[in-house]
Amino acid sequence: SWVFLCDLLSGVNAYSTGIGRIWVAVVFVFRLLVYVVAVENIWKYANDEFECDIRHPGCENVCFDHFFPISHISLLALQLIMVSTPSLLVVFHAAYREKKHHNQKLYKHLGELDGGLLCTYLISLILKTGFEIVFLVLFYNLYNGFQVPRIMKCDVRPCPKAVDCYISKPTEKIIFLSFLVASSCLCIVLYLSELSYLVFKYFIKCYLKRYIKKCQ
Question: In what residue span(s) does the Connexin N-terminal domain sit (predicted)?
Answer without folding.
Answer: 41-74
